[in-house]
Amino acid sequence: MKAMILAAGRGERMRPLTDTTPKPLLPLQGRPMIEHHLVRLARAGFREVLINTAWLGEQFPQALGDGSRFGLAIHYQHETEALETGGGIHRALDWLGAEPFLVVNGDVYSELAFEALPRLAEGDLAHLWLVANPPHNPGGDFALERGRVHSQGPTRLTFSGIGLYRPTLFAGCSPGRFPLAPLLRQAMARGRVAGSRLNGPWCDVGTEQRLIKLEQRLNANMG
């Protein structure tokens, strides 16, 4: 299975830190945030990863190289203008191939066991991991009921930014900039999206304050 890490965002809420450094390259425990994903992916047996970039994209190969020091082959997809999640994945489909693939947001921290990913059931277009609603997203994104994800429901959870997808989720899409959420909601309406609750450590590192708190929590757990 191949993996893609989304790293093309501008990181507006992290400014001024992101004026000179892309958000996934900001340090967390002494190394770029994105390296935490790369190490876990390599440990789980992944061998090829694509990273899409836009803002200050030249810094990624400078910082990460070809991936050999992680035991990976890293490929880069530079977008002159960030294509959003849907557009970025769509542009990478030729590289990702015909089989299901993993996509991880480059600006989240997670300890999800990538070596124990489920297989997509026949007919399912996606499998999403959902987390308890953080303070910055109290209303949640989707509902999870008996292993199925719905756009509405009595108990809504927050999308973790981690998902498995079939290329056919993007059937009929045109190249360019577009979000992923509408495609997922269409698939949910047809009952074709599975999901799991992610109960372990997770953080959407969207602001400098969240980054500081995450660093403090991880350091405390090491003590």
Automatic annotation (TrEMBL):
Keyword terms? Nucleotidyltransferase, Transferase
Q: Which GO terms describe its molecular function?
A: nucleotidyltransferase activity
In its keyword annotation, does this UniProt entry include Transferase? yes
What's the short name of a Pfam family annotated to this entry? NTP_transferase
Q: Cross-referenced InterPro entries, in alphabetical order?
A: GlmU-like (IPR050065), MurU (IPR054790), NTP_transferase_dom (IPR005835), Nucleotide-diphossugar_trans (IPR029044)
Instruction: Give a yes or no for keyword Kinase in this entry.
Output: no
The highest taxon in the source lineage is Bacteria
Kindly give the NCBIfam families that the UniProt entry links to this protein: NAMPUrTaseMurU
Its protein name is Nucleotidyltransferase family protein
